[in-house]
Design goal:
Blueprint: H1 3-16, E1 20-29, E2 34-38, E3 43-46, E4 62-71, E5 79-83, H2 87-97, H3 99-102, E6 106-114, E7 118-125, H4 132-137, H5 142-150, E8 155-160, H6 165-173
Parallel strand pairs: 7-8
Antiparallel strand pairs: 1-2, 1-4, 2-3, 4-5, 6-7
Length: about 180
């Protein structure tokens, strides 16, 4: 790739860093379990370690990936790290799906994730009339179910954040 083109690709990825972007699987690397995806900016490799355990893809699958890192070290272009296991992916998916989070009424205070199994997310509302858990779950669970579907069935527990550590820990440990 020419240097000018490499710089443009680098700038495009830098703008998308820590964002969820759609991608299409273009190649399966059988020997490593890695996949090559087209993000619309360029093709890049997503390492097997960054995929949700048990996840298998076919060429042509449309997926969402989280851009965690962009480095200029590559000979042929920037080195881009993609992930489907990073806790930031849950946060960004929630921001995309839930208008109250986009508007800043509901705030995600923290995310703990064991990719492929379970996520715990603490939310808080700065409007007493808005239930932060209800806003995230949505009517008949539709909002959170859209995210669970994207994550291949990973459970998402949404808990109410509290400044009181005892109250917060009790909510975090309670079954969903």
């Amino acid at each position: 790739i020419r240097e000018a083109e490499r710089t443009n690709i680098m700038k495009e990825y830098e703008k998308k860093r820590e964002e969820v972007v759609p991608a299409v699987v273009t190649k399966l690397l059988e020997d490593t379990g890695d996949i090559v995806v087209d993000t619309g900016t360029s093709e890049t490799v997503m390492r097997h370690e960054e995929m949700i355990p048990g996840e298998h893809f076919e060429v042509g699958d449309r997926i969402k990936v989280f851009i965690t890192e962009v480095r200029r070290e590559g000979q042929v272009g920037p080195i881009v790290t993609l992930s489907r296991t990073h806790p930031g992916m849950i946060k960004r998916l929630m921001e995309l799906e839930i208008p109250e989070i986009q508007d800043g009424v509901v705030i995600i205070k923290g995310v703990a994730r064991e990719a492929g199994s379970r996520t715990k997310m603490a939310v808080w509302s700065n409007d007493a009339n808005v239930d932060p858990i209800g806003a995230c779950v949505g009517p008949r669970g539709q909002r959170v179910n859209n995210i669970v579907e994207e994550l291949r069935g990973e459970k998402i527990d949404i808990i109410k954040y509290s400044d009181d550590p005892a109250e917060f820990i009790a909510a975090a440990l309670a079954p969903a």
